Amino acid sequence: MRKMLMLVVAVLLVTVGMAYADKPPQEFYQRVMEPCGFQTITYNWDFAQGDQGFVPTVCDPDGLPVWEYGATTYVPDAPPYVWGTILNADYLNNAGHGLVSPSFMVDASTAYVEVDHYYDIETNYDGCNLKVNGNVVAPLAGYDGTISTSTSYFAYCVDMQEGFTGHDNMWRTDCWDLTAFEGEMVELEFDLGSDSIVDYPGWYLAAVRVGGIVVDNEQTSWGLIKGMYK
């Protein structure tokens, strides 16, 4: 019986080892932070103060749910409460789940979104992104790349889309420009997707702010004046 158990364990280790060997080594990223520089903040959704009306949603009926609200000790320097893709464990294989904000009208006072977040995700094969009314929107600093370009692995909800992927391993602040949606009612959807093997802590959100950015009227006016004399 003991020999049979050892044989089963050996087969499982070989199988998992082959799957891991099919993927290239992980890389580590340190992206440049780019906050919005708000002049006004219309919505300040600080998750340390509550879930702020954000709700998990199905972004692929075959993807597994992962978004949870609460306390975590799984990532360093986390606020008291966060939204995370499994609070105290790695995200699941075959995860595909979204987190949706309350809806709001996009105008001058709500044209930019700033997110305090942390991500640690399998490079290239798994990833996450922000969608606005179903459209992928990149932050001003850009995403890390295109998620799951492999024909052997499928990342639910984000497959073949731009997104965060890899190991940033730090709390950071990024800004999104929503001016293309001016005059529309929108919802923000934070989607995470993974394939069938290799998991990491995932995506954690500490706060989401919506507002308007600083406009340098003096600089703008001076530019117009100079343009008149060219």
Description:
This protein has helices at 2-21, 217-228, and strands at residues 38-46, 55-58, 67-70, 82-85, 96-100, 104-105, 112-120, 127-132, 135-137, 145-146, 162-163, 172-177, 185-186, 188-193, 202-213. By secondary structure, it is an alpha+beta fold. The chain has a single domain, classed as Jelly Rolls (Sandwich). The strands form four sheets. Strands 1, 3, 4, 7, 12 and 15 form a six-stranded antiparallel β-sheet that branches. Strands 2-5-14-8-9 form a five-stranded antiparallel β-sheet, with no helix packed on it. It starts with a helix and ends with a helix. The relative contact order is 0.25. Residues 1-21 and 218-230 have low confidence and may be disordered.
Tell me briefly what this model is:
The chain is α+β, with helices and mostly antiparallel strands.
Give me the secondary-structure topology.
Elements: H1 2-21, E1 38-46, E2 55-58, E3 67-70, E4 82-85, E5 96-100, E6 104-105, E7 112-120, E8 127-132, E9 135-137, E10 145-146, E11 162-163, E12 172-177, E13 185-186, E14 188-193, E15 202-213, H2 217-228
Antiparallel strand pairs: 1-15, 2-5, 3-4, 4-15, 5-14, 6-13, 7-12, 7-15, 8-9, 8-14, 10-11
